Write a sequence for this structure.
């Protein structure tokens, strides 16, 4: 049975990826989350979707390097990892971050540093055990800093560079790293945007693209795929045009 | 968010709140004073039962978790936004199936309860809520109510078929049924009069679990049709259908169903079905969900959308009423490609406002031609009222308050259970708010 591990398993995108994996085949799945009750409710649902699977829940602190290392060690004590999805994050209020540096630092940590530390900890072990897939959820927001959410964007940009470096380092080791960049997706995290931003993508569709991209071992997955084109344009817009845009 | 229902008669921008377990605390159902909302699932009801012009909308698709399953009794507890399709896909391979299925599986469990939907096995299995154990109902101004036939039974009866107006259906416990195969043994027969249809129905009800018929409503001469009956197969294995689905790619500038095409459509369909007459086998997905064969099929009625009209009339006056209605429709030159005629059995529905009652039911699509379509409905309404029948609110966008209150005599008992924070286009039209 293949072993899947999801960090930030209460993320809606992660939950839908888990459904696709578990409905495809019986797997050994470990959900790692900060909130036990929420993770247990997801575990119960997943277990019903495929009773032959093993679904475990583990909780811990995501905002501290030692806790992250020990969480990963505990998870790996139960067996090697075939597929790891690192999915946690939070969408901060940009204006609050500009005024409150403590909030700003916390958001940078949870959206940027924490995911890459998880990736690093898993990568080291997976190189030793001979391979597997690591997916890290970044964001299209990490492709270019924008005034409306550059704290989130900077943290996600950190993930982009870190994933690039990991890909470079792990090339040829059998460990494949996929950087996932979802566009705005309809999830509880974006609920407050739903009325101002009506074109949020369906979470099931986004999850489908991610699962397929990781399966194929793609280096970068935009989901939905159109964001690859949109972000290429946004990245290349000259400053004098970009600076006039209210985005 | 821009929303419409399946009939595409209106498009409006609604302030929405997505329901999910994470934001499922009472505050998320709070509305500002005087505001009301309605729950919107898949938007597969045809009229305005899932819309709330001028008000808010709660989106229920985020409530999509399975909670528990008892592999001995078949009891499944799940959240209200789970689709029938998900339940069938997960449980049929394990030998369990929804006991009652409508013509599409792209509907939510909450919608199935709120409209107390029925299927081709009404004469043997009743309505959807006949198989529901309990419901967790969220109220906009109070604590959740867990209601069943034994506890808070009044709430249960009001909520089954309660059009989403008694509260937000959050969680449902239902009984799945055991099946040994995902295939059905079918028999297709041709009939050439309503009397013949009626006889076939009566003869089939005891030994066939499913019966349904298609009637040609474009022909003035005779009420010919195709009668299909089926039972679960015991010889075929369980398997998921790999059938490919096509999608209606665009909204055509005019309805593809019109005076010129209707007769040809029906002639063609009748011919094809006639060739298939006799014994056969059908996968449950093809048999239960013919409408899902073409995704977005509702677009074929063009930019003005379409109405669906479904009525039930008691047996006493039934056949002659149906005959008058079919004659009226054929004379109008309007009417539909797929007209479904079926008998309902005598199993009492759970809900105060459940649509099915013992008798004959007829469902038809009508392209929206504005006033002329509504005039036709007025004539049909009069025939239905005269026959002591009623219309299906899940499909309605035009009936009058008097036809509603006459058709649903338990309406008065229902009203005290309405949630003051919930209203729909339909409730405003038929109940005043």
């Amino acid at each position: 049975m293949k072993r899947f591990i999801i960090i930030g398993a209460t993320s809606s995108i992660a939950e839908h990826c888990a459904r696709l994996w578990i409905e495809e085949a019986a797997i050994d799945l470990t959900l790692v989350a900060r909130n036990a009750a929420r993770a247990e409710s997801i575990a119960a649902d997943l277990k019903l979707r495929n009773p032959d699977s093993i679904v475990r829940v583990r909780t811990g602190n995501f905002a501290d390097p030692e806790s992250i290392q020990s969480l990963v060690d505990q998870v790996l004590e139960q067996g090697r990892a075939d597929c790891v999805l690192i999915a946690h994050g939070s969408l901060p209020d940009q204006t609050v971050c500009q005024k409150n540096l403590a909030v700003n630092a916390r958001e940078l940590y949870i959206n940027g540093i924490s995911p890459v530390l998880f990736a690093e900890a898993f990568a080291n072990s997976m190189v030793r055990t001979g391979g597997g897939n690591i997916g890290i959820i970044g964001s299209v927001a990490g492709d270019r800093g924008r005034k409306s959410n550059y704290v989130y964007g900077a943290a996600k940009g950190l993930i982009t560079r870190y994933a690039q470096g990991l890909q470079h380092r792990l090339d040829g080791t059998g460990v494949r790293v996929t950087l996932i960049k979802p566009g705005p997706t309809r999830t509880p995290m974006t609920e407050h945007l739903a009325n101002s931003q009506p074109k949020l993508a369906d979470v099931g569709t986004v999850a489908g693209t991610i699962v397929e991209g990781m399966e194929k071992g793609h280096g970068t997955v935009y989901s939905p795929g159109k964001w690859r084109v949109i972000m290429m344009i946004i990245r290349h817009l000259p400053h004098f045009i970009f600076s006039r845009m209210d985005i | 968010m821009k929303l419409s229902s399946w009939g595409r008669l209106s498009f409006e921008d609604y302030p929405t709140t997505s329901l999910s377990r994470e934001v499922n605390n009472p505050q998320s159902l709070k509305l500002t004073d005087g505001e009301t909302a309605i729950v919107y699932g898949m938007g597969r009801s045809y009229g305005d039962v899932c819309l709330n012009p001028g008000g808010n909308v709660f989106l229920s698709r985020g409530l999509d978790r399975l909670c528990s399953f008892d592999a001995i009794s078949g009891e499944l507890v799940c959240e209200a936004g789970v689709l029938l399709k998900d339940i069938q896909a997960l449980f049929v391979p394990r030998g369990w199936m929804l006991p009652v299925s409508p013509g599409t599986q792209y509907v939510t469990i909450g919608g199935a309860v709120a409209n107390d939907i029925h299927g081709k096995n009404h004469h043997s299995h009743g309505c959807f809520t006949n198989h529901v154990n309990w419901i967790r109902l969220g109220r906009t101004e109070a604590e959740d109510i867990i209601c069943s036939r034994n506890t808070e039974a009044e709430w249960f009866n009001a909520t089954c078929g309660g059009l989403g107006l008694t509260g937000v259906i959050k969680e449902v416990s239902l009984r799945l049924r055991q099946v040994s195969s995902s295939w059905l043994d079918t028999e297709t027969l041709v009939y050439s009069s309503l009397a013949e249809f009626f006889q076939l129905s009566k003869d089939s009800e005891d030994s066939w679990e499913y019966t349904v018929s298609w009637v040609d409503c474009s022909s003035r001469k005779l009420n010919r049709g195709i009668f299909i009956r089926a039972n679960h197969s015991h010889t075929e294995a369980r398997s998921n259908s790999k059938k490919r689905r096509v999608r209606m790619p665009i909204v055509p500038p005019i309805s593809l169903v019109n005076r010129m095409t209707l007769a040809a459509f029906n002639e063609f369909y009748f011919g094809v079905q006639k060739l298939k007459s006799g014994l056969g086998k059908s996968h449950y997905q093809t048999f239960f969900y013919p409408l899902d064969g073409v995704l977005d099929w509702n677009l074929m009625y063009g930019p003005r959308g379409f109405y669906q009209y479904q009525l039930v009339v008691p047996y006493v006056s039934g056949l002659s009423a149906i005959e008058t209605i079919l004659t009226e429709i054929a004379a109008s030159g309007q009417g539909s490609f797929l007209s479904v005629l079926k008998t309902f059995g005598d199993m009492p529905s759970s809900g105060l406002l459940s649509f099915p009652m013992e008798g004959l039911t007829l469902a038809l699509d009508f392209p929206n031609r504005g006033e002329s379509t509504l005039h036709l409905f007025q004539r049909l309404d009069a025939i239905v009222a005269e026959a002591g029948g009623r219309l299906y609110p899940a499909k309605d966008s035009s009936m009058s308050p008097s036809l509603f209150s006459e058709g649903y005599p338990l309406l008065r008992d229902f009203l005290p259970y309405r949630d003051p924070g919930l209203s729909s286009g339909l409730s405003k039209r038929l109940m005043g708010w």
